[in-house]
């Protein structure tokens, strides 16, 4: 396996065992704990790391990734624009809001960053097939990258996923199982398969998706003269949040950043296990028994890496906030109207979450806030449009 100089392998988050990356694919062979990638950041010169302005792709940051750009399975994900939202900032009464638009990625979501790194790891392992349960976008991305790497992709997707996502899994040549129900049913279908020869791309089952997500943070730091005071993220599994906190931590260690921004996790009230655990001061998630939200991407009642998400949030001094589906849809349609941004429903969760944080007095009027739009708003055209119907439009 050809890896970068700074990447030193993977460590189990539970028992602390360290492994060479070629020796494990997912989870700790000793205790079944979740693995995490490890880097010797001391070997990195700060001047080498950031590309000023916008990067061409996430692989421009390969000094802080496990694999070099030359070996990457890449469709040039990353290098997404950061969009200033003055009307939204005025509406929320903060000094500025910037949205990192991850819908601009090759298959339309932030998942392309995560999957690009994880499929590269899979190819380095020499596997022939990757597999995962997905609410939608990660499955589409996996099918695309597996196709490019000449691997099979087995995708388990709930029937509620948008039609165009399911269609594109097939168009990319993926093997798709559409499971009646919601995400947990897709996980069950995936888990009962004989998965011995499949490399898992499931969130936190592979340690490498977090590495793809952390590049969002590198790009933010490279683009802005001053980092946002707070970053509000829609949170399902929390790969994006854990990745961005991880990216900020590395830049702190290298000496490029001197403070950690506060991170806030926003979840729909109908499925908010992270908010509930965070507010209870718990270290682990209590699964939500009957999740129900319009936001399919965030309907994750039992996130695999929940404990990691809680720990990451806590380390930044941030908080977690839940919002109603009504406020979410209002926020996602408002921003399309006032800023022209096609935000997906989960971005509406983050915007509505930001509004609640303001109401509660948790963010001052001077704050500059960073948000991420994880995916294509047009995938949610039906629910966004029907929200307008409810208003007689
Ligand atoms: C993945 C995803 C999210 C949530 O990200 P997590 O990393 O699972 O917290 C939100 N919206 C969309 C469209 C996504 O694809
Ligand atoms: Zn272990």
Describe the structure.
This protein is of the alpha/beta class and 393 residues long. The protein has 13 helices and 13 strands. The chain has helices spanning 46-49, 86-92, 111-125, 137-148, 163-171, 183-191, 208-223, 239-254, 273-279, 306-316, 325-338, 345-359, 381-390; strands spanning 7-12, 18-19, 35-39, 82-84, 96-101, 129-133, 152-158, 175-179, 198-200, 230-234, 262-268, 319-323, 368-373. The chain has a 6-stranded mixed sheet, sandwiched between helices. A 4-stranded parallel sheet has the order 8-7-6-9. Strands 2-1-3 form a 3-stranded antiparallel sheet. A hairpin with a 5-residue loop joins strand 1 and strand 2. Helix 3 packs across helix 4, helix 8 packs across helix 10 and helix 11 (325-338) crosses helix 12. The longest helix is centred in the middle third of the chain and has 16 residues, at 208-223. The chain is globular. The relative contact order is 0.13. The model has no long low-confidence stretch (mean pLDDT 96). The site of pyridoxal-5'-phosphate has 17 residues, from helix 8.
């Amino acid at each position: 396996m050809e890896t970068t100089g700074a990447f030193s392998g993977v460590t189990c988050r539970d028992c602390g065992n360290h492994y060479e990356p070629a020796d494990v694919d997912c989870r700790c062979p000793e205790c079944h704990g979740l693995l995490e990638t490890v880097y010797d950041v001391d070997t990195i010169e700060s001047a080498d790391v950031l590309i000023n302005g916008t990067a061409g792709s996430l692989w421009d940051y390969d000094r802080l990734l496990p694999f070099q750009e030359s070996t990457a399975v890449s469709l040039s994900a990353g290098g997404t624009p950061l969009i200033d939202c003055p009307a939204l900032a005025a509406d929320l009464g903060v000094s500025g809001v910037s949205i990192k638009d991850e819908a601009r990625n090759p298959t339309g979501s932030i998942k392309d960053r995560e999957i690009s790194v994880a499929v590269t790891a899979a190819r380095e392992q020499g596997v022939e097939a990757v597999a995962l349960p997905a609410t939608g976008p990660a499955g589409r991305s996996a099918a695309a990258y597996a196709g490019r790497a000449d691997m099979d992709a087995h995708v388990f997707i709930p029937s509620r996923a948008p039609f165009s996502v399911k269609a594109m899994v097939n168009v990319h040549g993926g093997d798709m199982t559409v499971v009646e129900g919601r995400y947990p049913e897709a996980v069950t279908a995936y888990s009962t398969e004989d998965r011995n020869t499949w490399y898992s791309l499931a969130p936190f089952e592979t340690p490498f998706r977090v590495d793809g997500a952390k590049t969002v943070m590198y790009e933010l730091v490279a683009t802005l003269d001053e980092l946002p005071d707070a970053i509000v993220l829609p949170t399902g599994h929390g790969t994006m949040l854990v990745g961005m906190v991880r990216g900020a931590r590395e830049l702190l260690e290298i000496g490029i950043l001197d403070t950690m921004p506060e991170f806030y996790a926003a979840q729909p009230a109908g499925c908010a296990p992270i908010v509930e655990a965070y507010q209870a001061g718990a270290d682990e998630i209590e699964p939500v028994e009957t999740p129900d939200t319009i936001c399919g991407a965030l309907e994750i009642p039992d996130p695999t890496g929940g404990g990691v998400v809680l720990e990451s949030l806590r380390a930044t001094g941030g908080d977690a906030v839940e919002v109603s589906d009504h406020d979410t849809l209002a926020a996602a349609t408002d921003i399309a109207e006032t800023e022209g941004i096609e935000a997906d429903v989960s971005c509406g969760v983050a915007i509505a979450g930001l509004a609640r944080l303001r109401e509660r007095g948790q963010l001052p009027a001077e704050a500059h806030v960073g948000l991420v739009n994880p995916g294509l708003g047009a995938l949610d055209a039906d629910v966004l449009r029907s929200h307008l119907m409810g208003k007689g439009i």
